[in-house]
Structure formats: C-alpha cells, structure tokens
Design brief:
By secondary structure, this protein is mainly alpha-helical. It has nine helices and five strands, in the order βααααααββααβαβ. It starts with a strand and ends in a 9-residue tail after the last strand.
Length: 269
C-alpha cells in the first residue's frame, strides 16, 4: 500500500509562525472543518477521516508501512474490544452500501415490524382480570384506545411473522411490510402486487459509507476488498458518496482531495 501524501498543488503553504515544518496545522484545521461540517459523517467516519488527515499533514512520509503504523497509532486501541482491529473496522464501516432505515443506528423500532393487515374491529385494550376502573379511568382508557396506532391507521398491529419486500422504482431503496400469521393471505397478495415493480427497480443507491474517497485519492476498491472481503463489488453508482444521486439533494461540489500514492504491497496484518 502506498504512502498517504498531499497532492503537490494542494499542499498547504508553510506558515512561518508555526513549527510544524510544512503548514500542517493550518492544513489539518481546514480538513477538520470540512469533516465536521459533513453531515453524512457519523462518529466512526469522523474518527477515521480525522486520523488520516492528521497523519498526512503532521507526519508526512514516503514510507508506506510507516504511514500506516502512524495511522494505527493515531486511531489508538479499542480497550472495550481488545481483539478488534480498529482500522479494519473503520474502513469496513465506510464501505459504500445501502442501509435500510430500520437497520441504521437507532433506527430499529419494534412498532415498525408489526402486522399491517386490516383490522376487523376497533382495538380496545383489555383490563386486567378482576380490575375495576373508575369512570375517569375508563374515559382516559377510551381516549388512549382512540389514539392507538392500530385504530388511527386501521391496522392489525400484531407482531409480524411474514414480511414482504417493496423496492422504490427510482432509487431501489426498499422497505419491509410485515404481516402476522392471521394475515398471511394479505402478505401473499401484496407480494404479488409488488413483484413486477421489484423486478424493474434499479440497484439501491448507496446511502452509507463512501466518504474516504471524497477526501483521499486511492485505489479504494482494492482497499475496501482488503479490509472487508475479496469478493466485495463496488456499487454501479461509484464509490464516492459525492457522486451518488440522492433524490431531493443537490450534487456535492468537487473538493480538493489528498492522494494515496499507489505502489507497493498492502500493509502486513
């Protein structure tokens, strides 16, 4: 793996007031500002992007192995998971991919995995056996029942057992529709309805990862394969998050990037 270096015409100019030897402080500050302002970057992405920017601007070297040792040192060790390769984990986290809403961090919601089959009668919470409710308590319970999602959405709401995939025609993004055992017939009917639409849908536009190629130039397909698995294939939309056609959002302007000089073997694990 080659050493990380600044593209010559993008290298920060030397500031006589600093002692970094190459204007590294200003260069890192500029990069850090861009990274922190990038709303696509989560905590893991920022950790790796900032570490790479720090190593490039403050510890320049033409020795590839030294560069990657510096990067691992900058990342530190994950004391909570002693046997986790932090660098491998972070680069794997940046692998371009599509992540459904309920699989994103904090996105899991059991209520979204409940049966959406039609209700036959209004939902009414049953009181505990032998429980006697006062009039105000009954009125409060009736209000809660009326506002329950099973009544407002007119859905079954039982825990889902069967699921049906629906892909969006323009983006390929998909959602799961859940059905309980009682509404298995509805699940089959909906599956038949979306069968043709799913077959015509494109490959999902990635919505996660792909930030490293936005800031650093390198053979990222090779790197992603090295740090994930050899059979990984890049999405048809490219590996840079800047290039992905996200509906409702303007294209991201081209930015100056740092370069990973190719050549040499990948680092020893």
């Amino acid at each position: 793996m080659g050493a990380l270096n600044l593209v010559p015409d993008q290298a920060p100019k030397k500031d006589p007031s600093t002692k970094t030897g190459g204007g590294g402080g200003q260069g890192f500050a500029d990069l850090a500002q861009q990274i922190y302002q990038d709303q696509r970057a989560d905590a893991k992405s920022r950790q790796l992007l900032l570490a790479m920017a720090y190593v490039i601007t403050f510890q320049p070297t033409d020795n590839a192995k030294e560069q990657w040792r510096n990067l691992r040192k900058a990342l530190g060790r994950d004391d909570r998971h002693r046997y986790t390769d932090v660098l491998r984990d972070l680069i794997g986290h940046d692998r371009p991919r599509y992540v459904p809403p309920d699989e994103r961090p904090g996105g899991y919601d059991p209520s979204k995995r409940r049966c959406i089959g039609p209700r036959l009668r209004p939902y009414k919470e049953r009181p505990y056996k032998g429980e006697q409710m006062t009039l105000p308590e009954r009125l409060a319970q009736q209000k809660r029942d009326a506002e329950d999602f099973r009544n407002t959405d007119n859905v079954c709401g039982a825990p889902g057992k069967h699921r049906v995939l629906e892909k969006q025609p323009g983006t390929g993004w998909y959602t799961w529709h859940w059905f309980c055992q009682r509404h298995q017939g509805d699940a089959k009917r909906v599956a038949e309805q979306v069968k043709e639409q799913n077959a015509a849908a494109p490959e999902p536009i990635p919505n996660a990862g792909g930030l490293l190629p936005c800031y650093f130039e390198a053979d990222w397909v090779r790197l992603y394969r090295h740090y994930t698995w050899d059979s990984w294939e890049p999405p048809v939309y490219g590996i840079r998050a800047d290039d992905w056609p996200i509906p409702g959002k303007e294209p991201v302007p081209q930015r100056a990037r740092l370069r990973l000089v190719t050549g040499g073997d990948l680092e020893d694990e």
